[in-house]
Task: inverse folding
């Protein structure tokens, strides 16, 4: 079942770029779409995954180790996990 959500983080585009660089070039298994846009408080992510299990595996194996290192260095502390708003997907039309 498709798993989708959105959340906001208090970081700037430069910090986000360091996180992306730390994740490497390989697309995570199960990722359908990852969108990031600016907000007054930082950045908002909107993700669509093939399953919640794919997302959780990515978080534990790849994302948290990088975020812990990069965000802690940028902010001087590790902020709490952001509040996640789950989205009830109807369709995801993704280009090549």
Result:
């Amino acid at each position: 079942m498709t798993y989708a959500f959105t959340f906001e983080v208090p970081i700037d585009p430069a910090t986000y770029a360091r996180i992306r660089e730390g994740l490497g070039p390989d697309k995570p298994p199960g990722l359908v779409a990852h969108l990031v846009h600016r907000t007054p408080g930082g950045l908002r992510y909107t993700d669509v995954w093939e399953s919640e299990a794919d997302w959780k595996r990515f978080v534990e194996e790849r994302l948290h180790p990088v975020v812990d290192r990069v965000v802690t260095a940028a902010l001087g502390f590790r902020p709490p996990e952001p509040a996640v708003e789950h989205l009830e997907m109807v369709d995801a039309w993704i280009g090549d």
The longest helix spans residues 52-75. The mean pLDDT is 93. The radius of gyration is 13 Å.
